[in-house]
Specification:
two-stranded antiparallel ribbon, 56% helix, 2 helices, 101 residues, mainly alpha, 4 strands, extended
């Protein structure tokens, strides 16, 4: 059953699943920085909760891992494309915007 926390590296105690031991997130200049294990765990939890919300009563660990990998890859590619777009057009965009101000 989806009980909020499903992850293969989590330790199971008393029928529930507990988060793996990971370092605390770091806040630097107002930006939250997570290590890859914590980010993957948070993404896995979000996916598990969405599946539960959509009516799934259980999920195989392997299927959840594949789903997490696919969504993680999408976010990674989206972030890289956004960064490239920002680098390529930020100077042009700011000068265009100043024309209208």
């Amino acid at each position: 059953m989806l009980r909020g926390s499903l992850h293969p590296t989590a330790s199971i105690r008393n029928g529930g699943v507990k988060e793996p031991a990971v370092p605390e997130p770091v806040v630097d200049n107002g930006a939250l920085e997570l290590d890859s294990q914590t980010a993957r765990f948070a993404l896995s939890q979000s996916i598990a909760l969405m599946l539960q919300h959509d009516g799934f009563e259980s999920v195989q660990t392997y299927a959840l891992d594949v789903f997490t990998d696919v969504v993680g890859s999408f976010f990674d590619k989206f972030g890289r494309a956004f960064h490239e777009f920002h680098d390529a057009y930020s100077k042009k965009l700011s000068s265009d915007v100043t024309k209208f101000i």
